[in-house]
Write a structure and sequence with these properties.
The chain is mostly helical and 300 residues long. The chain contains 13 helices and 3 strands. It has 2 domains: 3-87, DNA polymerase, domain 1 (Orthogonal Bundle), CATH 1.10.150; 114-294, hpI Integrase, Chain A. The protein has a 3-stranded antiparallel beta sheet. α1 (3-19) packs antiparallel against α2 (24-41) and α6 crosses α10 (244-257).
Length: 300
Amino acid sequence: MNENSKKYLQEFKLYIEVEKNFSKHTVTAYGSDILSFLIWLDERKIEDVTYDLIKEYLVYIRQFNYTKTTTARKIASLRTFYRFLYREKIIETNPALGVHSPKKGKTLPEFLTEKEIEQVLNNTKMESPAGYRNRAILELLYATGMRVSELSNLNFENLNLAENEIKVFGKGAKERIVLVSNRAKNYLESYIKTARYLIFKSETNKPKDPVFINKTGFRLQPQSIRLAIKNVMDTIELPKHVTPHVFRHSFATKLLENGADLRVVQELLGHSSISNTQIYTHVSAERLKQSYNLAHPRAN
């Protein structure tokens, strides 16, 4: 890999992190994808890459038997990288324009029933301040459908609990308002008034201060939230892999089952396209079929 390639890679990572506001996870993944591509290019110049050469690279990576999702991401990385190079006038034409991602098979998202949600919540031990914080987090994830990164990034200035509202910043720094149930609000307010101070003894709740903190007073990171959920799941017998995103899926599924408009659910989830939200209509339809098969005497 030549020196120019190294420089372009660093500039690209800065671009998608700062200007595009991609998540840290996506920046790392895209950076790794492009690094692999540049290593494959060896000393060949980025400016000399053609459509045929990109296709040759895609044939090369087939030997690793990546999933369709991973392959699609690697292609998305290349397309974003070459759009960046074209924008910066480093290249005159974009060789990745005609490259398309493989079609991903739609899989129904995992979700929890109301009974299973209560089972998870009730097994979140609240004997310690951190345990009370974790209960508030899980209540909030289910009540709002927030992404775990959005919840982790909450500051006090984002809370408008008098109106049962929270302002969040989703993918691409898109701002939206999520609504909070009274139950989740009560847990959150109790955490803020008591448990938060006991986790880290700071009496100031400045607007820019993080809502959820660890024992050193720093912002609680998404990985710590995932670990908290894993610890709860290890104590109960539930044949499902439960992650923060499963709470988001459960939130959307419950709304649609109870008659919420698809556009409303799209707004609450912060989906840029309604096609991303429509997957939950399939979930609801599948549950209807299951109920029918169980209840109707001539279903089978």
